[in-house]
Amino acid sequence: MRVIQNTLNTVTREEVKTYQRIEQPEDFTRPWAIVRLLPDLRRYTVARFHNRTDAQDHLRVLNRFIPVAEFEVIFDTPPDLEEEEN
Q1: What is the span of the domain harbouring residue 65?
Q2: CA angle, corner 46, sides to 32 and 43, nearest 5?
Q3: Count of domains forming the chain
Q4: What is the 3-state secondary structure (H, E, C) of 15-63?
């Protein structure tokens, strides 16, 4: 009986791996963002903040722990507002 129970409780590595990337909607109530600069003029939003001071503090931590990556603090406006201004 114990052998059967152990085989039922065993989980293989293929069953545990789930590499689904879930895209989060942009939260423009927090306009200050830290972006990671990627090749070919691409950028990846790392985090968003309500104020610039919090963003700069977080940027210092990122630069300390990931010194080879390039990050910038930006003020990111919603795309709808950018279209209305033009």
Answers
A1: 25-77
A2: 90
A3: 1
A4: HHCCCCCCCCCCCCCCCEEEEEEECCCEEEEEEEECCHHHHHHHHHHHH
Tell me how far apart the alpha carbons of residues 45 and 47 are, in angstroms, rounded to a whole number: 6
Q: What is the pTM of this model?
A: 0.61
Q: Is 83 left (phi over 0), alpha (psi -120 to 50) or beta?
A: alpha
pLDDT by residue for the chain (86 residues), tens only, comes to 444 444 445 545 555 555 555 555 666 688 999 999 999 999 999 999 999 999 999 999 999 999 999 999 999 887 775 555 55
